[in-house]
Amino acid sequence: MDLEQGKKAVCRVMQLKDKLISLQSVLRVAALLATTAAAVVMGMNKQSYTAVVAIIGTRPVTQTFTTQFKDTPAFVYFVIANAIASGYNLAVLVTRRLLQPRAQSLAVHLLDMVILALLATGSATAASIAELGKNGNLHARWNPVCDKFGSFCNHGVIALVSSFVGVALMLALNLLSAAAKSPHSNVSGQ
């Protein structure tokens, strides 16, 4: 009787472990897609705006202004952070079957925390600059630019939302991984 209950318990633990690994894989693929989308959308973000700067006689003199993500170090950091997170998640998905589960589990958990911090800082930095671009700063007399570069700002918002989704997914991965490593857990993850 005890042997039969022990076998059932082991079977339930194995099923729970398989579900946990499947959930982690789904979350990791979603995080890969979100961070890749954020990096690509912001990396391709560029817009030009032509304005009349003077009128000489009856002829207007125009100036074309161009903005792109490379103009702001915060956006460059954002693109790099999301690209690193994408590459990392892809590498984990590809190599997770090749490595020993026990050794890989701790390394992946620790690297997940590093990637989470990298993504969160990149997203927060870009969000602060995006807010400045949208609203300006009256005290410093910095005017908003989103009224002139609306498409650039809209693409930036899409990239930011995608990146913050990636942050949330990486946080969920970290929480699942930590729960699996809890001394009260019978399941070892990833």
From TrEMBL:
Keywords: Cell membrane, Membrane, Transmembrane, Transmembrane helix. PANTHER family: CASP-LIKE PROTEIN 1U1. This is CASP-like protein. Pfam families: CASP_dom. It comes from the Eukaryota. It is a multi-pass membrane protein. GO terms for cellular component: plasma membrane. It comes from Zizania palustris. Signal peptide: none annotated. The keyword Cell membrane applies. Homodimer and heterodimers. The chain crosses the membrane at residues 20-42, 74-94, 106-129, 149-176. InterPro entries: CASP/CASPL, CASP_dom, CASPL. Belongs to the Casparian strip membrane proteins (CASP) family. Residues 19-168 form the Casparian strip membrane protein domain. It is found in: Cell membrane.
